[in-house]
Amino acid sequence: MSPGERQTESDTIYPRPDPREQPTLLHPPYRATVRRAPNQPLIRLPHTSSELTGPLYGHNPIGETDDDLTRQHGGEPLGERIVVAGKVMDEDRRPVANTLIELWQCNAAGRYFDRADNHPAPLDPNFTGAGRTMTDADGNYRFVTIKPGAYPWRNHSNAWRPAHIHFSLFGRCFITRMVTQMYFPGDPLLALDPIYQSIPEEQARRRLIANFDLDLTEPEWALGYRFDFVLRGRAATLFEERR
Amino acid sequence: MSSHCLPSQTIGPFYDFALTSNQKLGCMIGPDVKGERIALRLTLLDGDGAPVPDGMIELWQADADGTYAHPNDAFCGFGRLGTDQLGVCLFETIRPGRVTGESGGLQASHINVSIFARGLLARLVTRVYFAGDPALEEDTVLALVPAVRRHTLIAQPDATRPGQWNLDIRLQGERETVFFDV
Question: A87 CA to chain B: closest CA distance, Å?
C-alpha cells in the first residue's frame, strides 16, 4: 500500500492476491498475451458497493443432467468416466454455499463441441462438454464427466495443451469472480505449457492440479478426482452472506 | 487455518457453446423493469486496434434506484455476451442509479465490466460511465484515474440511435482503456 492510501475494512476482508500466485498478464511464451495484455499498470480500486455485491446468477434453474455430462445425450460418451468433486471456500476455508459453478471441456479425443475448434479429432455425438451446478449448504459440488484429451494448438511448434477442465465461479460478490482451469496429476505436458507456467510460483501453480482420490472413486464405475476452489475473501463480522 | 486464492487461467478460445450461446443474457430488462432503457454497445479491440472476436463481456450494475440486485428483484443486474466478428457486444439494459461510494457519498452512475478472452490470463475489470453526467466531476473512482485517460471509461451517446451508448474497450495502445485492480 502506497503512502496516503487508506486501509478500509473491505481491504482486510478481500486482501489483494500475491502477484506471484497469479498469472503474469503479459507472458510472451503464451503468444496471444502480446497484443492483448494491457501495458499500463492497473489502477487500484477501493472496494465500494459495486465490488462488494455480485450477481447471484442462480435464476436459471439447473437442469437434471447439468452436473452429469455423461447423461446429456441418448448414449454414453466415449472415454474414461470420472467424478470431479470438492468444496468451494474462501481464504479462511469457510464454505461458499449456493454459488454457481460452470464447467466446460473437450471430449476424450481432444475436440471441443465448438464452431471455432477445427482440430481434426472426432466429435462425440454423446458428449457436449458443458455443465453447471450449485454448491450445497456446505460448499460441496460434484460433477460426473469423462477425462478430456490433450490437444494441439498453434502457439509454438508442436504445442499441446495438457488435459484440462475449465471452470467459472461467481462466489459472494464481484471481487470473487473466478475463471480457471483444472489439470490432472502426472501430466508431462504441464512442464511445457505456457498457460500453466504463466503463474510465477510453483506452489501456486500446483494448486490447479486435482488430486486423485480413492474415496471419490466409485468401484467398477469411475475414477475420482478432488479439486477444491479457494476464492478471495477472509472472515469479518461485516462479511455476512446475503440471503 | 487460512489458504490462498486459486490462480486464474485464461477462458481460452472455446467456451461459446458453454457460456455465451444464450443470447438472452445480453437482454437484462423485462417488461416490468423500471428506469431509462438504454442499449450499450461495447467494442473490444486488441493492441493493433483489431477486433477481438472471441471475448466474453459481463456486466454488473445497480437498478434505476441505485440498488444492487436482491434475489427477488425483477432486474438482476447481470449481463453476459460473447463478442461478434467485429468485437462488438450489444446489451439492452437500463441506466443504473447512483450507488454509495467509499466514503458514503454517491458515485456517478456506472456499470461494472468484466472482460475475458483468449490471451487474457486473468479477468480484466473496467467501468462504463456516461458522457454529460454532471456527477462525473465528483466521482471518487474517476478521480483516481489520470485526467488524460478518463475518456476511456466514458460511453458516448450514439449519433443516430437514440438511447444507445457506445464505448471502445482497448486492451492496449495509445488509448488503452483504464483497467482496475479489484
Answer: 13
Domain positions in chain A are 14-37+55-230
For B172, which residue in chain A has the nearest alpha carbon? A38
B47–A55 C-beta distance less than 8 A: no
Interface test with B, best of A43, A52, A94, A134 (most B CBs within 10 A): A43
- For residues A192 and A217, the answer to whether their CB atoms sit within 8 Å is no
At the topology level of CATH, where does B16-170 sit?
Protocatechuate 3,4-Dioxygenase, subunit A (2.60.130)
E strand or H helix at B16:
helix B16-19
Give the residue from chain B lying closest to A116, CA to CA: B14
Summarised one tens digit per residue, pLDDT across range A192-224 is: 999 999 999 999 999 999 999 999 999 999 999
Q: How confident is the model at residue A243 (pLDDT cuts 50, 70, 90)?
A: very low
Q: Taking the domains of chain B in order of start, what are their residue ranges? A: 16-170
Q: What element of type H or E holds B19?
A: helix B16-19
The arrangement of secondary structure in A14-37+55-230, i.e. its CATH architecture, is Sandwich (2.60)
pLDDT tens-digit map of A77-114:
999 999 999 999 999 999 999 999 999 999 999 999 99
Ranges of residues in chain B with a pLDDT under 70 are 1, 71-72
Across the interface, of B17, B145, B172, the residue whose CB is closest to A113 is B17
Number of A/B CB contacts below 8 angstroms equals 221
Q: How far, in whole angstroms, is CA B69 from its chain's centroid? A: 16
Predicted TM-score of the model (pTM): 0.95
Kindly determine whether residue A231 and residue B4, on different chains, have CB atoms separated by under 8 Å. no
